[in-house]
Amino acid sequence: xxxxxxxxxxxxxxxxxxxxxxxxxxxxxxxxxxxxxxxxxxxxxxxxxxxxxxxxxxxxxxxxxxxxxxxxxxxxxxxxxxxxxxxxxxxxxxxxxxxxxxxxxxxxxxxxxxxxxxxxxxxxxxxxxxxxxxxxxxxxxxxxxxxxxxxxxxxxxxxxxxxxxxxxxxxxxxxxxxxxxxxxxxxxxxxxxxxxxxxxxxxxxxxxxxxxxxxxxxxxxxxxxxxxxxxxxxxxxxxxxxxxxxxxxxxxxxxxxxxxxxxxxxxxxxxxxxxxxxxxxxxxxxxxxxxxxxxxxxxxxxxxxxxxxxxxxxxxxxxxxxx
Length: 323
Known about the structure:
Number of strands: 10
Radius of gyration: 21 Å
Strand order of the largest sheet: 3-5-4-10-7-9-8-6
CATH architecture of the largest domain: 2-Layer Sandwich
Shape: globular
Number of domains: 2
Largest sheet: 8 strands, antiparallel, barrel
Helix content: 25-40%
């Protein structure tokens, strides 16, 4: 069983130092009766003591805690090919009926987009706490009343919905920032500002570290030069698909980065071979196929936009990222 991580681990450590929690071999030992667990003891702790423990974290600890709390340790990148002229119909249905019901079941609808280069492609991102909760959430949603009511209309817009990458952050904190903007309410119709670009690389899994270095040391500065921010970078999650009713791309390993281009930045820079960024993107090490580049316009209710904050990992120093 894995112990607590991130901010919980740091708070627990401070509580150990303060005497509120004892230290035992293999982890914290609570100063409570034997049958009480960690959650029970923390719920009984004085909130002032917990707040004080958080305040005693060093700046580096707080930065690392924030990096470990990025959105959704498991992410699906879903690319749908649609029948001509059907994208607006699907987006309207999706944003009216499908966002809140999924989030009520513990999933996160991270962002949804029109592909700027393909009028018949809809792209969206969905996040989960882990593979077990993914299976539970998907079973509940696709077996529930909302999907049953609207599935025929949704499916009628689609040619293919099986182009799905199952991803995890490439390192702690390289997922989406928890400080991303809030989602507009239902019935919002004004397009979100800026655009989001994604680079998808097929690669050798054993060389993932070299790709992380490429993104952090070479790609990020060039993105910054054109006014863009590195929103997240992911690698393939190799666990078996826990909900096989929805296929994912298996038997391949990919690395994916996403960048936000706010209004005033130049999404045209995200064109392989054009400009400094365009020349750098295809030059990544270890790729086994040509890069796929997506230039994406956030839809009216997308949480992720071109102005979303960068992922927590890039605010850390090099030594902290490598910790």
